[in-house]
Here is the input.
Amino acid sequence: MKHILYKETRLSALKLSYVFVASALLSLVPAYPILLGGFFTSLGIFYSFQAMRENRDIGYSLLLPVSKADIVKGKFAFVLLLEGASFIIMTIVTALRMSVLKDAAVYRENPLMGANLVFLGWALVMFGLFNLCFVRGFFKTAYYIGKPFVYFCVCAGAVILLAEALWHVPGLGALNAFGTDHIALQCGALAAGGAAFALMTYASLRRSVYTFEHTDL
Amino acid sequence: MSICEVRNLCKEYPGFKLKDVSFTLEPGTITGFIGRNGAGKTTTLKSMLGHVHPSRGEVYYFGLPCAGNENLIKQRISYSTGTVNYYPKKKLKELIAVTRRFYANWDDAACAAYLKLFELDPEKAPCELSEGMKVKCNLMLALSHRAELLILDEPTSGLDPFSRDELTELFTFLKTRGAAILFSTHITSDLDKCADSIVYIRSGRLVLAAEKSEFRARLGLPGETLEQTMLRLEKEARNEAYSV
Here is the structure.
């Protein structure tokens, strides 16, 4: 697997994708829909898939002594690498906003969702949706990327709207807690996001391996 | 033991059927794979490698079924689709650096020797190479891991006569080292020079897979070249189809 990941990073990946990982820093921007950071990271990964298709990476990969399942797993490893890097940046920024910056006026008066553990849970849902809608969709044909990405955009838009709206619902204001307020609720939301991510990614991987195995290339 | 055994390979597409294709490849032999455009040569080769999913049939390499042993088998064989048509902007040295990591028996000395033999500059990218040089580039990658079986889809197309001659000489040299080579081609004069066996396919069905001498004896007429034999047989088949 390390050789496939090396190929992904050395040949397949666009440098632009790594730049887009830095969009996780958007979670530091006040009065901004910070979940867009996760969306932009996904967009960066999408660009690598686009370049990979233009460079006929699948054709090259098939020549190598790896199984079709390993090719799929390699792509997932690359996607998870970038999503993981983005999530780590978001976590660091969130830790800052939950601790030393928790009383900063710009964040206290923020009309949009703040960065807390609930936000991180939503970010994981966003990444899980990317894996489920886009990566799985791509491996249905190992060629078409437009429709899967549109599906992801629709789902991502719905998640952002939901995340931004939900804490305005009476009784759910704690979802936008500052610092360690309502920490149990925050931890629960993060765990739920993590579980959703794991479930969606696992389902996507299994389905992608199956469909790619049965796709005529 | 055969290096490769194809048994009753079938693949169905809307409008095309590959039906019960069977043949074997022996060590130290060159096999030419011939047939018209659309006869099913590439489908057969891709089915043999699992790139397309056969409807039925089995493929064995070194006595192992292809399904479930892809990694092991691909370490010992090589497949090339004519020209390098991937990563056109990456330098050859980058492609080599990545490719070599996948092969346990990659031979750097052989790679350097083939780069020199084919006059390939590792600082160049595939997009800077002529079609013929792209073919050589694919062959260089295929040969550098000392594959025991080379499956080549039209490796001589796009090559000038001198390069084709060089290539057939190289095939003959590899054969003496015990490698088996299966290559599809429309340039049957190349097979007259170097092939030991012929697999002839028409409309998805195997016409004959046999040693070249047997092929000539069964299908050829005295004094005919392979090309003349194939042309005559194709015309006969066409006339038969029209008469029905």
User: Anything to note?
Assistant: The two ends of chain A are 22 Å apart (CA to CA).
